[in-house]
Write a structure and sequence with these properties.
binds NADPH dihydro-nicotinamide-adenine-dinucleotide phosphate, FAD/NAD(P)-binding domain, 32% helix, alpha/beta
Length: 460
């Protein structure tokens, strides 16, 4: 008889944990998974999935407007928040059921309660007090949104968790932050008809993205909402049944809801890490090696709790690689260097590889190809927004080292471009690819003249 109750105990039923549990069980491991909230985790329950459904909802506003230029007359469209919320929540529940069913079908035992680490090979279930002996433990507990900055009245704000529970569309909303979540939700609320203000402490949104993409986004958002850059929040107070935010320059913003999207922190509190000697890093994350193993050999961690690249597909890959390595006899680790990503703002952003500044730093001499143009649809719709594309090429090897798209469906396009870039495509490969006409994406293969570099020779 085994000295262990299970071969693997997974703490957390989000993207990383579910994938690891399923694959490990597929290799014949006895797997138990604890989830204290809802199986599916942030992405399915209160992240990517319900957010994207809201993004779709918002985009109809543009479609109704654009239709007029093509001969359609659409009576004043009306949006009903209750219908969207009900249908979105039903879809999330449906997906949760599928996640549950897939785990059960794979032979994973799901325990719907919180689990904490007792020792390197023991987990305690908090509600029932049961202890489980596990040969290996995988921590996949994710992260939670923070309520920052720490100013008076910040408790009156909501985070990206509560935003999915709102019972009505706020007439006025103030969104604070300049990362993925703030940018996406500001776009959603503005499109759905809320009077939206986006407040960010920096001079540009989306730190880490290419500067010209950041500028293009700011320009588009200025037409869609009240964008306040380089300003910080000083306090929030209740006022006349609503909220009033005061900024550092003394200006005040009245809103029905204030959404703070100023980052997320790993869910490590009370997990028992100190009992096994795992110290978290400065960001509160669990340090792991390339195989997601912590300094305690029997304990592994994947996903946002490790703060490597906090994206669902990355957590899934990490979970899969862990299971392949430990239970499948196929050592695998995830390459975090080249990760295509999209921001579901409207217009959308799709990126793979380096920003221009990052490419110059990494390669020295680079060639920069750019296109900025009005999409064909806009010729009749009259919409003013431009598409912006940028391809960055390492001059020495001709390899494409960065592609940036700002425009409709950028997320869809960048997924395909990501394959080419991951394979090591050169600019010559892009050039010999025949264009699909007429599309916006054909610009990616028809850019012929690099921008004349403003940098002295030798700097790139
Ligand atoms: P991010 O870390 O991306 O952004 C946080 C933002 O808040 C930054 O603009 C930051 O400013 C600002 N900020 C941080 N602290 C403060 C403060 N004290 N006062 C004022 N502003 C502050 O976090 P998000 O919450 O937007 O997203 C979390 C993660 O979720 C992301 O890293 C992303 O990986 C993932 N995600 C991915 C999505 C996608 O793939 N489409 C969608 C949503 C989330 P500054 O830049 O100056 O530091």
């Amino acid at each position: 008889m085994s000295a262990y109750d299970v071969d693997l105990f997974v703490i957390g039923g989000g993207s990383g944990g579910v994938r690891a549990a399923r694959i490990a069980a597929g290799y014949g491991a006895r797997v138990m998974l604890a989830e204290e909230y809802r199986v599916g985790g942030t992405c399915v329950i209160r992240g990517c999935v319900p957010k994207k459904l809201m993004v779709y909802a918002g985009r109809f506003a543009d479609e109704f407007e654009d239709a007029a230029g093509f001969g359609w007359s659409v009576e004043k469209p009306r949006f009903d928040w209750g219908t969207l919320k009900r249908r979105r929540d039903a879809e999330v529940t449906r997906l949760e059921g599928i996640y549950d069913a897939n785990l059960i079908r794979a032979g994973v035992e799901i325990v719907p309660e919180r689990a904490v680490i007792e020792d390197p090979q023991t987990v305690r279930l908090v509600k029932t007090g049961r202890t489980i002996r596990a040969e290996r433990i995988l921590v996949a507990v994710g992260a939670h949104p923070v309520k920052e900055p720490d100013v008076p009245g910040i408790e009156l704000a909501i985070t990206s968790n509560e935003v999915f529970e709102l019972e009505s569309l706020p007439e006025r909303i103030l969104v604070i932050g300049g990362g993925y979540i703030a940018v996406e939700f500001a776009g959603v609320f503005a499109a759905l008809g809320s009077n939206t203000t986006l407040l960010h402490r920096g001079d540009r949104l989306l730190r880490g993205f290419d500067d010209e993409v950041r500028d293009a986004l700011a320009e588009a958002y200025r037409h869609r909402m009240d964008l306040r850059l380089g300003r910080t929040l000083r306090r929030i107070e209740s006022r006349d049944g609503g909220l009033r935010a005061q900024l550092d320059d003394g200006t005040e913003i009245d809103a029905d809801q204030i959404l703070v999207a100023t980052g997320r922190r790993p869910n490590v509190a009370g997990l028992g890490l100190e009992r096994v000697g795992i110290e978290t890093d400065a960001a509160g994350a669990i340090p792991v090696d390339a195989y997601s193993q912590t300094r305690v050999p029997s304990i592994y961690a994947v996903g946002d709790v490790t703060n490597r690249a906090n994206l669902t597909p990355v957590a899934i890959r990490e979970g899969h690689a862990f299971a392949d390595t430990v239970f499948g006899g196929k050592p695998a680790c995830v390459d975090h260097r080249l990760i295509p990503t999209a921001v579901f703002s409207t217009p959308e952003i799709g990126v793979v590889g380096h920003s221009e500044a990052g490419a110059r730093e990494a390669y020295g001499q680079i060639d920069v190809y750019k296109a900025r143009f009005r999409p064909m649809k806009a010729t009749l719709s009259g919409r003013e927004e431009r598409i912006f594309m940028k391809v960055l090429v390492d001059r020495a090897s001709d390899r494409v080292v960065g592609v940036h798209i700002f425009g409709h469906d950028a997320g869809e396009v960048i997924q395909a471009v990501g394959i080419a870039v991951t394979m090591g495509a050169t600019k010559a490969d892009f050039d010999r690819t025949i264009a699909v006409h007429p599309t916006a994406a054909e610009e990616l293969v028809t850019m012929r003249v690099p921008e004349v570099t403003k940098h002295p020779v030798g700097v790139g």
